[in-house]
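RECORD TYPE: inverse folding
INPUT: structure tokens
STRUCTURE:
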């Protein structure tokens, strides 16, 4: 049985680039490719690139569970929201349920590009410190 795959972040730089190249990549056979979307425009775009659109609030653990189990998703490419773990935890639990039900291996692949470092630097430089010790923190 082939893996059903959920791609998050398909409307972003990394996920969108991955999805655009998906059909031309020499990947092993897989089942359905699903892409997490937030709008009708995104749904149309991912469908043109060969993915089935999924509307899903990753902060709602029960919705995540239902979606992953219903679609028998065994691979999740997590390319969004690296600073919050709620969605990832819900996916881990849902993938574990699929594994228990099917006996298949499941995977959560977390990818984040370097903009996270830039975000942290912007946060640190925007903080106001009450004395000269602030220079030592930067």
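DESIGNED SEQUENCE:
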């Amino acid at each position: 049985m082939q893996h059903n795959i959920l791609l998050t972040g398909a409307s972003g730089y990394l996920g969108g680039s991955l999805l655009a190249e998906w059909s031309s990549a020499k990947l092993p056979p897989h089942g359905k490719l699903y892409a997490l979307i937030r709008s009708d425009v995104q749904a149309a775009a991912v469908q043109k690139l060969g993915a089935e659109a999924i509307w899903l609030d990753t902060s709602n653990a029960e919705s995540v569970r239902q979606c992953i189990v219903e679609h028998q998703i065994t691979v999740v490419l997590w390319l969004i929201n690296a600073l919050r773990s709620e969605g990832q935890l819900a996916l881990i639990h849902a993938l574990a349920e699929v594994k228990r039900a099917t006996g298949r291996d499941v995977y959560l692949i977390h990818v984040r590009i370097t903009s996270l470092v830039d975000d942290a630097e912007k946060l640190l430089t925007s903080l106001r410190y009450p004395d000269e010790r602030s220079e030592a923190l930067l």
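NOTES: The radius of gyration is 18 Å.
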